[in-house]
């Protein structure tokens, strides 16, 4: 029988509707955690992303995995909604929160690839920054006191990349690299309380939206490499989910605080595999193709 490493733990996955957030919520549930799944896409009420996935759907998958999934519709750019969410978690769990995952993004429809930043719609760039970085800061602000109160815990900032390099677009690069810096700053504020804070990136994520973009399903996903050869090195949301489950179960997690980590590097360390039993390694693939070291 699989020993559930996170039995009795309480987690909040902010932005758990789909993609990495959904994969993380399921993985935490699979280890026995009680997982609050939040986002704006709820049954009958959807965000401007206009995707079919919902927080209720993720919560159901958490339950199926063996955890307890609780969906709470929350716009994490709204301070009052976040405050109410954290109060609910506190009241329902005697002030306990062990794991906070900041995965809110909401920027895909705001991307403006191919244009110089001064040629872009500035309001879209600012909204991207607000949807991601500001929402993460608001959520950390209200939830961190619960982590501190317990004297231990884990705060994970989900981003893209492990460094501050340019990612092909100014607004996107600034947003994602700022999330890494947020994790670094949070670690300095929280480590004296026994709480670890770090940034985590997946590789080429084979999310629901990416599968749709490539016109494939999880069953025939490799056909997507005909459209983009790099898709062959992609990973499912379950891979980064397992990375978080391992981090949350690590008794020496404070040794990792204040740094940016990757799903593939953590797979090297912890030995977990993707849902199909493989171990995708975006770092090795990227180095082979482009000669740049992401490890």
Describe the protein in words.
By secondary structure, the protein is an alpha/beta fold. It has one domain (10-290): 3-Layer(aba) Sandwich (Rossmann fold), CATH 3.40.50.720. 42% of the residues lie in helices and 13% in strands. A seven-stranded parallel sheet has the order 3-2-1-4-5-6-7, with helices on both faces. Strand 5 (153-158), helix 5 (170-190) and strand 6 form a beta-alpha-beta unit. Helix 1 (19-30) runs parallel beside helix 2 and helix 3 (79-92) runs parallel beside helix 4. The longest helix has 29 residues, at 122-150. It is globular and about 50 Å long. The model has no long low-confidence stretch (mean pLDDT 95).
The fraction of residues assigned to DSSP E strands is 5-15%
- State the name of the first-level CATH class: Alpha Beta
Largest beta sheet: strand ordering? 3-2-1-4-5-6-7
Order of helices and strands: EHEHEHEHEHEHHEHH
User: Total domains, how many?
Assistant: 1
The average pLDDT score comes to 95
Write down the CATH topology: Rossmann fold
Radius of gyration, in Å, reads 18 Å
Record field, number of beta strands: 7
Low-confidence stretches: none
Structural class: alpha/beta
Rounded to the nearest angstrom, the distance between the terminal CA atoms is 35 Å
Alpha plus pi helix count: 9
Major sheet: size, sense and barrel closure? 7 strands, parallel
The CATH superfamily is NAD(P)-binding Rossmann-like Domain
Helical content (DSSP H or I, runs of 4+) = 40-55%
**CATH architecture descriptor:** 3-Layer(aba) Sandwich
Shape estimate: globular
């Amino acid at each position: 029988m699989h020993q559930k490493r996170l039995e009795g733990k309480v987690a909040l996955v902010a932005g758990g509707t789909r993609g990495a957030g959904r994969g993380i919520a399921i993985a935490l549930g699979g280890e026995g955690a009680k997982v609050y799944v939040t986002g704006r896409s709820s049954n009958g009420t959807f965000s401007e992303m206009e995707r079919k996935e919902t927080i209720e759907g993720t919560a159901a998958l958490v339950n199926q995995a063996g955890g307890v999934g609780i969906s709470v519709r929350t716009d994490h750019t709204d301070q009052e909604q976040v405050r109410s969410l954290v109060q609910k978690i506190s009241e329902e769990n005697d002030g306990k929160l062990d794991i906070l995952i900041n995965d809110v993004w909401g920027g895909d429809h705001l991307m403006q690839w191919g244009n110089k930043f001064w040629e872009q719609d500035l309001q879209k760039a600012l909204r991207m920054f607000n949807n991601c970085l500001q929402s993460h800061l608001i959520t950390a602000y209200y939830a961190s006191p619960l982590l501190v109160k317990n004297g231990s815990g884990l705060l994970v900032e989900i981003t893209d990349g492990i460094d501050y390099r340019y990612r092909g677009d100014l607004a996107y690069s600034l947003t994602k690299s700022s999330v890494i810096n947020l994790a670094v700053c949070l670690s300095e504020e929280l480590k004296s309380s026994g709480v670890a804070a770090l940034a985590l990136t997946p590789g080429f994520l084979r999310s629901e939206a990416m599968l749709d973009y490539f016109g494939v399903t999880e069953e025939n996903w490799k056909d997507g490499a005909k459209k983009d050869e790099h898709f062959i090195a992609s990973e499912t949301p379950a891979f980064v989910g397992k990375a978080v489950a391992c981090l949350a179960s690590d008794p020496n997690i404070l040794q990792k605080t204040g740094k940016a980590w990757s799903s593939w590097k953590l797979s090297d360390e912890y030995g977990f595999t993707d849902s199909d039993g493989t171990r995708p390694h975006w770092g090795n693939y990227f180095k082979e193709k482009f000669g740049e070291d992401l490890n």
